[in-house]
Amino acid sequence: MSYVGQKKGNYAEMEEEHEEEISLMALEESKEGKKNEWFLESGCRNHMSGNKRWFSELYENFIGKVKLGNDTHIIVIGKGSIQMKVNGLTHIVKHVYYVLELKNNILSIGQLQEKGLSIKIQNHTCTITHPEKGVICKVQMNARRMFMLTAAMGTDICL
Asked: What does pTM read for this prediction?
């Protein structure tokens, strides 16, 4: 969905050439940051990470910016794929933005659904299901009402 040159709610979007503006609705800062934890976020349009080591492929010529809820921006300096191991299975997550300033990793629920995954939130649990492979993971809601997925990343994955 594209609203080129228009405003829609809290989103201001631009044409996708070499620069794109992305809105980030919510961000919870962990004390250590950039751990193997990924926030499952429905208010964020794109997967994002600030850990360059995790990218199995990274196109650093992709430039953009992320608009935060307080109307400030942080810069996207690449886009690529990340391999993560969840419940013993390795998954390749594509179209992940590399945002150096980002202290937490974000998986966009909307982007997961576009890839055919089903997201069900019920009884304080978020279940992600693949149509053929079945349940990929179940994540319990934390005390701050957030869903955080823990995955093995980078050198922790044995392919």
From this structure: 0.75
